[in-house]
Amino acid sequence: MSPLMRDIALLALAVALVLLALTLFGERMRARRPQPDTAVEVFMTRVDSWWAMFILFTLAMLAGSWAIILLFAVASFAALREFYTYSARTKADHLSLALAFYIILPVQFLLVFFDLQRAFAVFIPVGVFLLLPFVSVLRGSTERFLSRVSETQWGLMIAVFCLSHIPALMWLQRPDQEPGRGMLLIAFLVLVVQTGDLAAFYTGRGRGWKRIVPGLSSKTWGSAASGLAAAAGLGLVLFWITPFGPLGAAAMAAVASLAGQVGHLVLSAIKRDRGLRDWSHLIPGQGGFLDQLDSVIFAAPAFFHLTRLWWQTG
Amino acid sequence: MTSVPAPEPARLPAWRRFAARVAGQAIVLFARAITAVHADWRGVGPSPRQRVYFANHVSNGDMPMIWSVLPHHLRQKTRPVAAADYWLKSPLRAFAGAEVFRAVLIDRRAGERTDDPMVAILQALDEGASLIIFPEGQRNQGPDPLLPFKSGLYNIASARPEVELVPTWIANLNSVMPKGELIPLPLMCSVIFGEPVALREGEDRRDFLTRAAAALAALRPETRP
Fold it and tell me: Is B36–A282 a contact, with Cβ atoms under 8 angstroms apart?
C-alpha cells in the first residue's frame, strides 16, 4: 500500500468512527425521548447528510483527481443556481446567465483539470468581468444595469471562482511528495473549517457573550474564538496529512476557520437581504449547497494563497 | 377542431404505453435536474383525495412542473386540462398530451366550439381523476400576478362540491424560460400547494372566483430578486 493510500484509509477510518459515534449518540437521544423530538431529528438528518458527503468524497478521492474536480463542479453548479435564483436579473440577462452556467463554469473547472494555473487565476476576475456585461448590454436594456451585472459577477466569484479553489488545492504539493497528496489538503481544509463552524455554533448558546453582528447572526466573539480554537486543535491532530509541521497546520487551520466564519457572516447578510432562511432544500438538514459550503468557499482562496506564499518564502 | 377525449390507456398497444411511461419519467428527471423543483405542501398534504389543482400560468412548462412534483401514486391519477389547439398541433405533441400526460383536451375558442369543455372535465372527474387546471385560460405575460379567472373553476365547484380545489402557485418558472428564449436557465422553482377553497352557501360566481384568485396569489413567495 502506498503512503498516500494508507493516509486516505486512515483518515477515512477516523472520520467514519466520529460519524459512527455521532450516529450512536443521536440514536440514544432518540431512544430516551418518549416522543419524537425535532432537535434530535434535525441532528440525525444532518448526521445522515454528513455520511453521504463523506462517502461521496472518499469515493472521489479513491477514483482520482478528475472525480474530485467533477464533484466540486457539480456543487458549484448547484451553488450558482441557488445564488442566481435570488439575484437581480431581467430578461436581458438571459444569455449572460446561460453562458455563466453552461460555458464559464465548465471552463473554470477544466482549467483546474488541465493545470492551467495562470488562466485559472484571471479567467473570471478579469476576462469574464470585462466581457460578460457586454452580452447584457447588447440586449439594450439599462434598467438596474449596475445591480444586475454586479450580482451576476458576484455569483460567479463566489459560487465558481472561489469554490474552484477547493479542487485547485490539489496543485499545492511539494515536488518531493508523492503525486496526489494534494487531495488530502482538500480533506484537511473541509474538516477544519466545518469543525470550527460546528464548535462556534454549539458553544455560543446561552452564555451571554457579545454578539458580533446583533440582528444578523447568533455568532458571538466568544463562539467565534472557540471555533478558531477547535479548528486549530483539529489542524494540529491532522498535521500528518498536510505538508506543514504540527504548529504550521494548527495556524493554517485557524486562518482557514477565520476566513470561513467571515464568509458565513457575509453570505448570511446576503440571505437576509433577499429574505431567505436557507438557499434551498437540496441537502436534508443543512439547507442548500451555499448554506453548506459558505465558509469553505471563503476559506479556500485564503488557504490556497497563504500556502503558496508559505512555500515561496519558506 | 372539436374536443377530443384522451385515448383510454388500456386500449393502446403495450409498446406505446411503455414509451409514454419512459417519456414521463424523462420529463420528471429533466425538470428536477434543471430546476431542482420542490413541492411545498403548505395547506394540504399529498393525500390521495380527489382534487382539482388550480394554478397560475406563465409558461408552457407549468403543467409538466406540477405533474413532476406530485408523488408517483398521485401523478398516475392526475390529468391536466389543456388546450386542444396546442396539444394536437404535431404528432409529437399529440403523443405527449394524450398519452404521457393523459390530458383532458378542450377547445378554448368560446365562440366556435361545438363541445362544451365542462362535459369533458366533469366526465374525467366522474371517472375518478384529479385534475390540473389553469383558470386564467392563457399565459400571463403581464406585470400582474394573475389574470382574471375564467368561469370553469366556479362551474366545477358548483357541480362537484365534494372535490377539493387546491390553489397551486408555481414560483420562478417564467425566469427559467421566458417567452422567446431558446436555452432554459437552471434556476430553482417551487410548487406551493395552499389550503383548499370551497364554494360557500349562496356565494355567486364573481365573488367565488375573486376569493379563489386571492387564495392563489397569497401563496406567492415574498423573496425578491
Answer: yes
